[in-house]
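Tokens as discussed.
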């Protein structure tokens, strides 16, 4: 962008010099033709340079697109792995819950068996006392004793079985808990990896956007350069410094100035205004300029932006020209134009205002000056940045 703008300025100056030394003699016409041929050669040189840069940017853009595709694939793999881990974790949690329920049931069964065993023991002790007290132990009661002995053995076997099952399930729960912890570690690692991939994708997308903007810009510059060549051919076809040739040269100078303004406007938008909401070129009393809103001059070459960092800044296409100096302030700043005509920044830990009341409108002017006016058009306050404005074409004639 810089060398093209410099080329436009140099071309304008050469056209003006040619007009200043105009004459109908053969030498003047020869100088004019030499000048247009030189400008055309330079334009052709820049066209070749633009074509090479477009090719380089296209190659770089392709690499970025390929890299983004690879990152997207890795991201999808991470998502699939995370989904599989989530499914396994849910399955394990359900298995642990089921086994804990079974353990609880088994412990309850042991408790019930213990109560039954305690009851049998008391019954046995009771009947044994009765038998010994009466000294009557019928032979038939030997079968009852055998039955009690078998029930004792069955009780012990069943309790051992239940305890073994409980031990096995507790061991399995321990294994599943270990796996659950491993899954949680894998998920944390996976999420960290996914976060890094997401940041890489954002960075690559930023590179792709930047390269795409550069390619479009270079193509626009090639169009501009070819139009300059066309204008030069019209001038070169003139046999003398007639009124027609002077008109063509003046139109060319005016056109080049419009081109420069458009380039500066596009650069301002790309560098500073992107992401901001434009409120037009003025703010009226009673209105507010919020975070990430701006006043954009009608020629789109200057902007006053209420930035997200709480700084209120006037920009041209190249650099900031003025600021409220509140960039380090905490809070969420906004420009309030109160009904008394005082313009102030509020909502932050730092303050700024115009110090004078009575303003009716704040305008971001085409000359780069941000000015607050009374209703009678008398200025109340200004950023004093008008000295950065470019000289208009009409000043040359």
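Sequence:
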């Amino acid at each position: 962008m810089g060398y093209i703008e410099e080329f436009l300025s140099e071309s304008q100056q050469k056209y003006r010099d040619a007009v200043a030394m105009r004459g109908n003699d053969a030498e003047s016409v020869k100088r004019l033709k030499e000048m247009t041929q030189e400008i055309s050669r330079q334009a052709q040189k820049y066209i070749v340079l633009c074509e090479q840069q477009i090719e380089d940017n296209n190659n770089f853009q392709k690499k970025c697109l390929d890299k983004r595709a690879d990152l997207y694939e890795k991201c999808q793999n991470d998502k699939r792995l995370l989904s599989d881990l989530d499914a396994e974790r849910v399955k394990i949690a359900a298995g642990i819950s089921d086994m804990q329920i079974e353990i609880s049931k088994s412990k309850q069964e042991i408790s019930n068996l213990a109560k039954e065993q305690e009851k049998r023991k008391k019954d046995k002790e009771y009947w044994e006392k009765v038998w010994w007290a009466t000294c009557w132990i019928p032979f038939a009661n030997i079968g009852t004793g055998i039955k009690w002995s078998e029930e004792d053995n069955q009780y012990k076997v069943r309790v051992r079985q239940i305890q073994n099952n409980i031990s096995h399930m507790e061991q399995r729960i321990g294994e599943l808990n270990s796996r659950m912890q491993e899954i949680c570690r894998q998920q944390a690692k996976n999420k960290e990896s996914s976060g890094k991939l997401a940041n890489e994708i954002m960075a690559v997308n930023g590179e792709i956007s930047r390269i795409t903007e550069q390619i479009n810009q270079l193509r626009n510059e090639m169009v501009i350069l070819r139009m300059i060549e066309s204008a030069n051919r019209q001038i070169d076809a003139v046999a003398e410094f007639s009124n027609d040739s002077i008109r063509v040269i003046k139109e060319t100078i005016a056109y080049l100035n419009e081109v420069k303004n458009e380039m500066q406007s596009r650069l301002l938008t790309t560098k500073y205004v992107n992401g901001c909401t434009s409120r037009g070129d003025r703010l009226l009393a009673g209105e507010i300029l919020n975070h990430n809103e701006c006043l954009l001059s009608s020629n789109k070459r200057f902007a006053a932006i209420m930035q997200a960092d709480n700084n209120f800044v006037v920009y041209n296409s190249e650099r900031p020209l003025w600021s409220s100096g509140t960039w380090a302030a905490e809070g969420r700043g906004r420009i309030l134009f109160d009904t008394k005509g005082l313009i102030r920044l509020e909502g932050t830990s730092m303050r700024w205002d115009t110090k004078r009341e009575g303003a009716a409108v704040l305008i971001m002017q085409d000359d780069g000056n941000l000015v607050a006016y009374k209703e009678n058009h008398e200025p109340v306050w200004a950023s004093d940045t008008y000295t950065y404005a470019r000289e208009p074409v009409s000043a040359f004639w």
